[in-house]
Amino acid sequence: MIVRLADNVTSPLGFTTADNYRAVLDGRSELRVYDNRFGVRDPFCASLFDRNVVDEVFVSLCKCPGNYTFFEKICIISASDAISKSGVDVKSGRVLFVLSTTKGNVSLLYEKIPGIPENRVLLAEAAKSISQFFGNPNKPVVVSNACISGVCAQIAASRFLKSGRYDHVVVIGADCQSKFIVTGFQSFKALSLEPCKPYDSNRKGLNLGEAAATIVYGRKDEAEITSADWILRSAAIRNDANHISGPSRTGEGSFLALKEVIKDFDLADIAFVNAHGTSTMYNDEMESIAIYRAGLVDKPVTSLKGYYGHTMGAAGVLETILSFHAVDNGEVIATRGYENCGVTYPLSVSAENRTTDRKSFVKLMSGFGGCNAAVLFSKGGKR
Asked: What is the spatial distance between Cα 296 and Cα 325, in angstroms, rounded to a whole number?
């Protein structure tokens, strides 16, 4: 069985999973309006790191920091914490690094950094710099598939582990913002100048965010599984090829992914569906349709975008981690910004934290190009 061994969330809300989880339960967010940040002409609302704080943490962690980009630094900070908690020797050839990111070091296209080779703009080179920091001998794998990258990376990790080629996989999801990214989303007219409002009738668009998140996965025989273990039960990736940027109006790809992961599973054990919930008009509507069609409309639905914004390559990993800890603590995290239902099929979304005694959850993501992914996780024991 594929199990989580350790995790970390590094974000503007904190540098550990525990710090982030406490902040989210308290309803805190670092979403705010930035003016002339990254040289972007128009203001935008986002959750961004304090670069000076990240540099201080990185120097303290590494002692001899070397030449790394900001993107690489947040990846290393997050992975270091998760790896140390896992007890895994990442210098072993039986360990693989998988990096989920949508843009990586894209700012190197127009910003030259002393000591950083120009080829680090390539995602494979950025991934190599991160895995080599830890002394890992294997060629890292990069997963870059729009918004579903973080979930896809976890699915890829499970497949590598099931193949028997590796004993452990370190999945890192990360992205940082830049002029290239912000102006791109502005050109879509997709950004809101206010903190986002997932599934709400007054939602005006998404916010961007920065984060790095890491999960260390391993294998265990069924006899070794304990009640504390998180198991990746089933997963699916489906592409409805609807449009380069617009989701299917019928939620076809999301529905097919959900249908696959929940088949033959006792739905009564599902605590919630942690959905994409970007606060864009069409994404939220599409997800409500897909969740309804999959027979999950009575389950609590949560979105974490109101705390972090859309963290792109980090989102699928970060949101999975916080969902682990929510179920561990018997909680359904509030959807920050939600007030009134604004989707066709009323979802069980709440602006208040709720309780649960269920031990499983579904993570759902959707992205550009009609790509969709879903994973079902549950705590130890048979289901």
From this structure: 21
Residue 263 corresponds to which tokens in the numbers above? 């088949």
Written as six digits, the tokens of 44 are 């935008």
**Per-residue pLDDT tens digits for 230-244:** 999 999 999 998 887
> CB of 70 within 8 A of CB of 56?
no
Question: Which tokens belong to 7?
Answer: 């995790």
Q: What percent of the chain has pLDDT over 90?
A: 93
What burial letters (b/e) apply to 141-152, b meaning 16+ CB within 10 Å?
Answer: bbbbbbbbbbbb
Q: Which helix (H) or strand (E) holds 4?
A: strand 2-10
**Residue 13: closest CA among 367, 318, 346, 222:** 318
Domain range annotation of the chain: 2-222, 229-379
CATH number for domain 229-379, candidates 3.40.50.1970, 3.20.20.60, 3.40.47.10, 3.30.420.40: 3.40.47.10
- Give DSSP secondary structure letters for 98-113: EEE-SSTTGGGGT---
Q: With bands split at pLDDT 50, 70 and 90, how would you rate the model's confidence at 341?
A: very high
Q: Tell me which CATH code domain 2-222 carries.
A: 3.40.47.10
Q: Is 229-379 the same fold as 2-222?
A: yes
Cβ contact 112:121 at 8 Å:
no
CB atoms within 10 A of CB 40: 18
pLDDT of the residue at 66: 79
Tokens coding 282: 């069409």
pLDDT band at residue 383 using 50, 70 and 90 as cut-offs: very low
CB atoms within 10 A of CB 183: 15
